[in-house]
Write a structure and sequence with these properties.
heterodimer; A: mainly beta; four-stranded antiparallel sheet; B: mainly beta; seven-stranded mixed sheet; 0% helix
Chain lengths: 108, 122
């Protein structure tokens, strides 16, 4: 089973700042089958990024993903008020399809 | 528009059973992998189970935490996904989401329902 560890647990930033979220895998994630989801309070998760760096339909270009092997990053170039939320990385190469424990981006 | 509507959650005693349903619309349900993902109160996301689409013969997969207790199934004629949960434990308390998988990568969840709450308590 691939264990995903996200850091930091909480990121306190102001609107307009850049956010950098990290996701580290316990073993190499095959073919970069790494996704990111956003979850706002009281809402279901929403797919943001798949295949490490491809944005899902309707996701603004201030969201970008990068990385390979065991180290992956989600970057939000300039935080908008609606971006303050929880973010989860996930590998989807094979069962079990595991998630990281999440990073909360909160308003400073 | 893809829509996923879960139902069947509620309060159940430890050791009890519950069946969740997820009514799907807006896509060709039978061909897509479908999953259940849960989220305990204040916690992160945990994948629970996946069932393949018609192309895979409906193969099923389970997290170790539910294997032998939960059964995933689908009725393609009704566009509905199910999760039969037996021998429920307090640690199964969570919001259970139905999620649609991508056609080529079943574990990539591109649409989610709003969830149904399961509470296991005496």
């Amino acid at each position: 089973e691939i264990v995903l560890t996200q850091s930091p647990g909480t990121l306190s930033l102001s609107p307009g700042e850049r956010a950098t979220l990290s996701c580290r895998a316990s073993q190499s994630v095959s073919s970069s089958y790494l996704a990111w989801y956003q979850q706002k309070p009281g809402q279901a998760p929403r797919l943001l990024i798949y295949a490490t760096s491809s944005r899902a339909t309707g996701i603004p270009d201030r969201f970008s993903g990068s990385g390979s092997g065991t180290d992956f990053t989600l970057t939000i170039s300039r935080l908008e008020p609606e971006d303050f939320a929880g973010y989860y990385c996930q590998h989807y190469g094979s069962s079990p399809w595991t998630f990281g424990q999440g990073t909360k981006v909160e308003i400073k | 528009e893809v829509q996923l509507l879960e139902s069947g959650g509620g309060l159940v005693q430890p050791g009890g059973s519950l069946r969740l349903s997820c009514a799907a619309s807006g896509f060709t349900f039978r061909i897509y992998p479908m999953s259940w993902v849960r989220q305990a109160p204040g916690k992160g996301l945990e994948w629970v189970s996946l069932i393949g689409g018609s192309g895979s013969g409906g193969s099923t997969y389970y997290a170790d935490s539910v294997k032998g207790r939960f059964t995933i199934s689908r009725d393609n004629s009704k566009n509905t996904l199910y999760l039969q949960m037996n021998s429920l434990r307090a640690e199964d308390t969570a919001l259970y989401y139905c999620a649609k998988g991508a056609l080529d990568y079943g574990g990539l969840f591109d649409y989610w329902g709003q969830g149904t709450l399961v509470t296991v308590s005496s």
